[in-house]
């Protein structure tokens, strides 16, 4: 066997002290947020009633290449970071591929995913500002869990609007959020105007991330000294997740390795954006030629079948509009098990990179994702989250292509989390009851129609 270990751990001392801000190396920035009332570019003051001030500063910071990670955040990070970089020797053997497969494992904390990286940063800045309560939404439950851990640590009350179908599929996710002190409300609910409206139109709906965001934002702006925090999509979240990529790059360099292909699943884009950031920064400067691949569910194909247009980040149309790949904020994704990937839009940074041809995207079906998850878990001994398994699917596909061509490419993917709370899905798959749902063009038209009606998109669609 080669002298590359199965697991490479950086020391606590080697853990990055700065978040890398990819935007500083992007020659062109994505288009600015648009204020939904004035339909003009949003300025800092527009965002302050909803978000914490330092996070708004980070959202708008396109010039500082490195932003220092506050000491208290690094202290928290040390409870579960640095995260290991794993050489998938067993998977390589199982596939019989000449490819070298590596993955970064972000599931090594109680919340079970990368979401904690941004949760702790966001709660820290809220505490510093003297904010007395926080609201958020959660899809799969990972973000809600991560945030409840961070809120417990910094002692700030938290209300989590959890997509109704997820709260039913994953009662233990709800229980763990409550164990850490978060209050869980299945969304849509009757606790907000937005929720009541959605329920009146569609009483049987299982909810969506877009709809839970509307409720959480409304709750924050109608509660004194409260703010809303978001687990993905925004530039600030990708910034915090850059620690994944920086650790990865440091570990790969220690091993003398350089990826040819980097793969990540994409819901709102935060893990992928953080994972690829340093390497993408180098690619933008012409220093490498790595292929970057985003993997999304075929049932919610924002990149591969969406439009690049301005859209609301939520269903209730309360948030600023972002220019992104989107299926339209009215699009209701089918209840697939990768709840964290059921989002109509996509990170504006990744959307811009995709539009400029720097990022590829693939859409994969649910059953093919679980095929990959089973193969992976049986040889690598980690039970992956359904979301993360989207990346595994494409990593396996790329490794099998190498088997055909005989190329020994280096494939690096991000394993964002574990699937212990997804056993209903695994059970369905094991019993042969899992199905695929791929929206028809007519299904997608419903969402696109709402985009065409927005004056800001005139001439774009
Ligand atoms: C385990 C896991 N991976 C990936 C995602 C997708 O989110 P993002 O695209 O922001 O990384 C989620 C979202 O909930 C998740 O829980």
Draw up the topology in text:
Layout (H helix, E strand, L loop, with lengths): L6 E2 L9 E3 L23 H4 L5 H8 L5 E3 L2 H7 L7 E3 L1 H7 L4 E6 L10 H14 L3 E6 L3 H13 L3 E6 H6 L1 H9 L3 E5 L5 H9 L7 H13 L4 E3 L6 H20 L6 E5 L4 H15 L6 E7 L4 H4 L1 E6 L8 E6 L21 H8 L4 E5 L1 H15 L5 H20 L4 E6 L7 H8 L10 H12 L9
Parallel strand pairs: 5-15, 6-7, 6-9, 7-8, 10-11, 10-15, 11-14
Antiparallel strand pairs: 1-4, 2-3, 4-5, 12-13
Bound molecules: pyridoxal-5'-phosphate.
Pyridoxal-5'-phosphate binds next to helix 6, helix 12 and helix 16.
Name the features.
461 residues; Rossmann fold; seven-stranded mixed sheet; four-stranded parallel sheet; 18 helices; 42% helix; binds pyridoxal-5'-phosphate; Trp_synth_beta/beta-like
Any overview of this molecule?
The chain has a domain of about 280 residues: Rossmann fold. About 40% of the residues lie in helices and about 15% in strands. The chain starts with 6 loop residues before the first strand and ends in a 9-residue tail after the last helix. The model has no long low-confidence stretch (mean pLDDT about 95). Helix 11 crosses helix 12 and helix 15 packs across helix 16. With about 450 residues, it is α/β, with parallel strands linked by helices. The longest helix is centred in the middle third of the chain and has 20 residues. Bound molecules: pyridoxal-5'-phosphate (PLP). The site of pyridoxal-5'-phosphate has 20 residues, from helix 6, helix 12 and helix 16.
